[in-house]
Amino acid sequence: MTTTARRPQLRDVVFVEGVRTPFGKARPDGLYAETRADDLVVKAVRELLRRHPELPADRVDEVAIAATTQSGDQGITLGRTVAVLAGLPASVPGYAIDRMCAGGMTAVTTTAAGIASGQQDVVVAGGVEHMGHHPMGFDADPNPRFVSERLVAPDALNMGVTAENIHDRMPHLTKERADAYAVASQAKYAKAVANGDVGPEIVPVAVRSAELGWGLATADELPRPGTTIAGIRDLKTPFRPGGRVTAGNASPLTDGATACLLAAGDIADGLGLPVRMRLVASAFAGVAPEVMGLGPIPSTEKALARAGLTIDDIGLFEVNEAFAVQVLAFLDHFGLADDDARVNPYGGAIAMGHPLASSGVRLMTQLAHEFERNPQVRYGITTMCVGLGQGGTVIWENPHHPDYSGHTTPSSTQEA
């Protein structure tokens, strides 16, 4: 007698919870100068488990952790390393991911595919970047064919130069607009902190310095409250003499980690896990590496098409602010104003920092909190540009909306 294997039906994938460490300055006197990268993400994973005692640890089916520079304390199959160090059972596997800045986002979309197809029920996904220990591109050896065969422009491996290239190609995206956007990001972030909209997702981290001894990091180190256009107008342009990209209108070098719990909708119901949002569609797309900041445009178009939605259906946008000009290009393409209230309402990476592979999950965690405060919004987007000419976009649905279409009922979205 022949037995036919079951063909699993696609399942809803829901975002249960996201947390992050405070983000620190990537320099010798920064918050995490004497803290290991793997310990940062372990702290985040432990906090996820602490917040959800209703989840038996042995129900976690996978741990996927991203890092852009996978060496030293960001190496050795990071997902498995983190699973062991976080105290998960030895039966829980793990692996590492690299898609540069979209590493954490890819950890989510990759494991989500496994959940949807029935290969996993509950996963941990996240990212870490200790740019103080591992500067972007450090010890990398790009293939000389990139340049010798004119596959990639010589300046395409310098992210700051790619931002200058966008200014060149789109002269209407002026430095003045970029500076104004950056000042607004700082102001929105400061307001969000004051209102308690940023903070609940942050996990305190014990830190040590040779001068001060032990302390506790509880807040982001990078924001510059009170930033004005006049204050950043004349900053140096490090990527080009007389350029337009400065430290004022770009994200700073950052250390930090993020982690989130994803689950199948029916499994979340059964375990009593809260549902913050449902994954609707995702997409990655490529662009010319020398203008990598344009990547979120085609990835968003692709994700919208897959979801059967238009940009007008999106009520909240979390766009990673690697550079202000990259966000402005996205906004102009989709007909959104520079100060559209739906875009990064709590501020973005220009203010709080961009620890590369961590940032995708930070965007998702922030959107989940915005959904809770905006039940009238049904769909939201998290999107980011990616080095070497890529973009990534994930569309999410708000379970608090009256027309929520997910498997899990809104009643299960209450705090555990």
Class derived from helix and strand content: alpha+beta
CATH class: Alpha Beta
Whole-number total of structural domains: 1
Proportion of helical residues: 25-40%
Question: Can you characterise this structure?
Answer:
The protein is of the alpha+beta class. The protein has a single domain (13-134, 149-396), classed as Thiolase/Chalcone synthase (Peroxisomal Thiolase, Chain A, domain 1), CATH 3.40.47.10. The protein is built from twelve helices and twelve strands. α1 packs across α2 (78-85). The protein is globular, with a radius of gyration of 21 Å. The chain starts with 12 loop residues before the first strand and ends in a 19-residue tail after the last strand. Mean pLDDT is 94; it is low at 408-416.
List the helices and strands and how they pair.
Elements: E1 13-20, E2 24-25, H1 37-51, E3 62-66, H2 78-85, E4 94-97, H3 103-116, E5 122-130, H4 145-148, H5 159-169, H6 175-195, E6 205-209, E7 213-217, H7 229-232, E8 254-264, H8 265-271, E9 277-286, H9 296-307, E10 314-319, H10 324-333, H11 349-352, H12 359-373, E11 379-386, E12 390-397
Parallel strand pairs: 3-4, 3-5, 10-11
Antiparallel strand pairs: 1-8, 1-9, 2-8, 5-8, 6-7, 9-12, 11-12
Helix pairs in contact: 1-2
